[in-house]
Amino acid sequence: NGRVEIVREALEAQWRVRSNEWSENSGPKLLTLECGPSDEPAECGICFEALHQAPGIFVSERGFRACQHFTCLECAEHVQDEANDRLRIWRMRRDPRIPQPPGPVCPMCRATFAQAARLTDPTMDPRTFFRLACVPQEGEGVEDLRLNDKIVPSVLSALLPINVTQFTHILDKELWPTWCKDATSPNALAEADFLRPGGMLAWLSDHLLEMKVEGVRGGPPPLQENPEKWFLHFDYNGKGVLSKPEVLRGIAKAYDVSALANPETPARRARSQGIQRLRNVVDAIWDDSTWQNGVPLAEFLGKGGLAERILTALPPPEASEEHALAKRTNSLTVEEALARARAADMKRCEDDQTRAKERAEKQKLAASTMPLTRNSRRAGSVRADQPGRAGAELLLASLLEAAREGQRGTVPAPIRIQCPFCGAVNQARAAAGHRVICGGCRSVFAVPAGAGLTAAAAPAPGGR
C-alpha cells in the first residue's frame, strides 16, 4: 500500500502541474475538449451499463488477459460463477453419460479464462494496469507484452466516458503518434514507453484524476450567480489568484465550447474552432500588464473586473446546464477532493482483494467437496460403509417395480445393490433386468442377472 500511495501522490502532483498549463493549440487538457462530449460512452455488452464505471476483464491462468473483450465487473463475475456452478453440479451427479461441462469462457469470443477481475486503475498501479491491458500471444511472457494500436481504443473507453467511434479518429491522428514518438515500434508500446513522462500514462492519469476530482467536488457554480465561488472553485493552488490557464480551464468547464464555433462549421471541427475562439476571447479580455502573475479575487469581482468581462464576451450557458452545475457544487478544495478520491480508490482496491480471496476460497471449497454428501443426506442414500438405509426416491421406484411384478404373480425379493457410478448401497425390491434409480447420484442402472439371489443370500459388506 505504501508503494501505491507514493505512485498515486506523484501522479497527482504531475496532474496539478499539467492542469495549469495552457497549450497554444488545444487549451487545457480536458476530456470534453480533447475527445468531445461523453453522451455515448462504451457499454457492457451484456447489461449495457456504462463500462468505465466498473470495467471487468477475463484473466487466464498465466495472469494475463485471455481476450480483448471487456464487460462490467458484475457480469464478468457472473459468467465465471455460472460456469463454476455447472461444473459443481456435474461433479455431484457423477454420471459418466454426461460430458464434463467447459470452464468459464468469454461470452463474446468463447476464449477460456480462469478468473474475472477488475481492470486495474492506472493511477493506483500503472505496471499492473499495463500488464492487464495487453493481450499476449501464445508463449509470450511479461517482457514480451506490447500494447498495440488495435486494442488501445477499447482499453481507454473502458476507463473513460468517451465515444469510441469519435475517439478512434482523434487517437490515430493526434494522440498515438505522440505516445509512440520515442517508442521502438510505431504500432505498439512497451512498458517503458507506456510509463515514459509525457506519454500515454500521463495523458490517461490526467483525465482520470480530473474525473475523480470533479466527481467529488461537483461542477463549478454559475459565474453570473456567484462569481466568488466560481473563482475559489478554480483556484487549484489556493493562492488567491487565478492564472490565465485556470481562467481558460474554468470557462471551458462552464460553457459548451463547440457552441462558440460558427454555425456553419461542421460538427467534427466545431470543437477545435470553439477552443480557438475561446482562446482569442481570453487573450482579448486579459490585462497582461496588470495580471502577469494572475488576477486576484478583488480585481476579478470588482466593477469592470474579469468576471464582468467574461460574462459580456461570452453567451450565458443554457438554463438546464446552469441548474445542473449549481446543484452539484460543493465547497471542497482540490486537495480535499484528491484526498477523498484517493481514500475511495484505496478502499475499492482493498474490497476487490477481499472479494477475490472470498471467491477463490468458495471455488476451492466447491471443488473439494464430496460430490455425494448433500444428495446423500437429502435422499437418504447409503454408502458402502453405511448399509441398510434405503433412499426415499429409490424406494418409490422399487415399489412401482414390485407392483408390476405383483400383477404377474411374482413379488421380487428385497436386495441391497451397489450403484456402479457412485458406490452407494441401495435397498430395493428388484430382480434381474429391473432398472433402479440410485438414491445418491440419481443415476439409473439395471440389476444384473443373479443379483437378487446373491444380494438376498449375502448382504453387502458391513451389513447385519
Number of DSSP helical runs? 18
Shape category: elongated
How would you state the average pLDDT, rounded? 79
Number of strands: 11
Terminal residue distance: 63 Å
Helical amount:
40-55%
Regions with little confidence, pLDDT below 50 for 5+ residues: 320-327, 370-396, 452-464
How would you write the strand order of the largest sheet?
A: 2-1-3
Strand content: 5-15%
Largest sheet: 3 strands, antiparallel
Computed Rg: 34 Å
| Class by SSE composition | mainly alpha
Please trace the helix and strand order, writing H or E for each element: HHEEHEHEHHEHHHEHHEHHHHHHEEEEH
Structural write-up:
The protein has 464 residues and is mainly alpha-helical. The chain has helices spanning 2-18, 31-35, 73-93, 126-133, 152-157, 164-179, 191-195, 200-217, 227-234, 244-254, 267-285, 297-301, 306-313, 319-328, 334-368, 373-379, 392-407, 451-457, and strands at residues 55-59, 71-72, 115-118, 147-148, 188-189, 241-242, 295-296, 414-418, 425-429, 435-437, 444-446. The strands form five sheets. Strands 2-1-3 form a three-stranded antiparallel sheet, covered by helices on one side. A two-stranded antiparallel sheet has the order 4-5. Strands 6-7 form a two-stranded antiparallel ribbon. β8 and β9 (425-429) form a beta hairpin. α10 packs across α11 (267-285). The longest helix is centred in the C-terminal third of the chain and has 35 residues, at 334-368. It is elongated.
